[in-house]
Every structure is written in structure tokens, then in C-alpha cells.
Amino acid sequence: MALGEKGELMRRQRLISTVLHLVVLLLVAVPGCAPVTVRHTTLQSTYTTAVQADVISTGELSQLTQQVLRMTGLPTATQDPFSTFQALDRESRTDQDQNTRVALIEFVLWQVLQQETTNPTAAEESSRATR
Description:
131 residues; mainly alpha; 0% strand; rod-shaped
């Protein structure tokens, strides 16, 4: 083999090797890719969406209220509602965070809805007594 032929053969081998490496790289990388959809949103709309999932629309305490309950050390709010109410009330008077007040109001609404569900007659009588 002449010197020129060896050089040509080496170039072809490098080209084939490079192409094979690129093919392997693409085969490894491409199957792991998924289409990505980007949706523009604002902080306000994200917050509003999160807050709208409240006790009135879902019948359950919102994530915000559950977080406030955890942060104030009251994760068992359903077991002792009266003590939870008192603790949230105390916290809302000393804490300037609006989330604590929102949690207190939502907790009270949740309790009323629970009472109305379990004992509708008592809730109706209570409503008539306040008129």
C-alpha cells in the first residue's frame, strides 16, 4: 500500500468512527426526550388558582390552610377542632401574616360545612335562632 492510500484509509476509518459515535449518541439521547410545552403564566394567576381550591369549592381544607396548620404545629386539626380554632385565633392576633387569617376563616367555614353535613337539623335551627 502506498503512503497516500494509508492516509485515505485512515481518514475513512475516522469518518466512519465519528459517524458511528454520532449515531450511538443520538440513539441514546433521543428516546429520553419528550415534547415540552411551555405555558405562560403570572405569579398572580398561579396564586389565584392555588387559593381558589378552597373549602367551598372542594369541601376540603386548601393546601394553604394545611400548610399554616403544619407551621403552627396543628396537623391534627380534625381531631380537636375547638383547640385548633383557639390556637389559630391566637396566632392570627399575634402574627401579621395574612395566610394565618385566611386559614382561620377557612377552618371555621370547614367546621360549619362539616356540622351542616353531619347534623343538618341543628345547623338549620342555629340559622333560625340567629335571625
